[in-house]
Amino acid sequence: MEAALHATALADTPFVTEVSRHLLAAGGKRFRPLLVVLASQLYADAAPADVVKAAVVMELTHVASLYHDDVMDSADVRRGVPSANSRYGNEVAILVGDYLFARASSTVAQLGTEYVALQAETFARLVQGQIAETRGPAAGEDPLAHYLSVVADKTGSLIAASAMFGAMVAGSPREVVAALAAYGEEIGLVFQLSDDIIDIASDTSGKTPGTDLREGVATLPTLLLGASEDPADARLRDLVSRPLSDDAEVAEALAGLRAHRVMDDARAEVERRAESARAHVAVLPPGEARDALVALCDTVVQRSS
Ligand code: FPP
Ligand code: MG
Ligand code: MG
What we know:
Helices cover 74% and strands 1% of the residues. By secondary structure, it is mostly helical.
């Protein structure tokens, strides 16, 4: 799969190849490919070449979205290396994100029209989730409900599609594909909620801590804080209610949040969601692959990078 990823990212010029392999070469968890592979192993008859193609489509779509995301978030570091935008500039980063999506599209075409259709629906959800994040909640909309729907669209959709792709290449029955879709949506939510906690809590994530605070992007811990009426939290509430450009304010907000009970409350919510993801595997055929899908819920809850 790694060889196929790098081969699919090849371009007509050494420069485009270099930029399109930049984040692939930096590493990453390969979480979406892992889900494709595990879901495909619930039944024995998936063709290995199709599993690899499905995994490549999901990872390249994800990586393409990261090239764009880091431009939108003005992020300097990704996967422990300079982001594509900080290394090559915004224009090249955006266009190479498009290039990677084109390469993913040409691979998905080899799998068949039902894969193309799911890929297209997923892309539509990714983009709309991102637009909803950028615009923020509408007047009168509950900010927490808005946040959860953003997360479902911008992250849950692709993770659910990964689990579905794995099931589809294995020729799984419809109810198995549906259960994996529901599992993927939930574990995707858990994955992004953990990611948002990591943005505050971790100094070893390969990304710059406090990026969401700088961008003024609301996340579960800051939304929980926003809902508290404790006067002792007034200063911290003010800091998280607006984008922060001052390094000292970012440091103050990070320190305040790290010591605050909202971090524990956010982690408890992540655990509740993980339990709901685990529940969806009950209808899947028992065996090693199903056990691994259950264990993956623990890994996602506990991850720190
Ligand atoms: C990460 O969120 C960003 C996303 C999950 C996707 C955003 C979607 C797009 C940019 C549109 C898709 C475009 C293509 C070409 C497929 P984050 O900023 O919260 O996560 P981070 O902490 O990893 O930066
Ligand atoms: Mg980002
Ligand atoms: Mg973002």
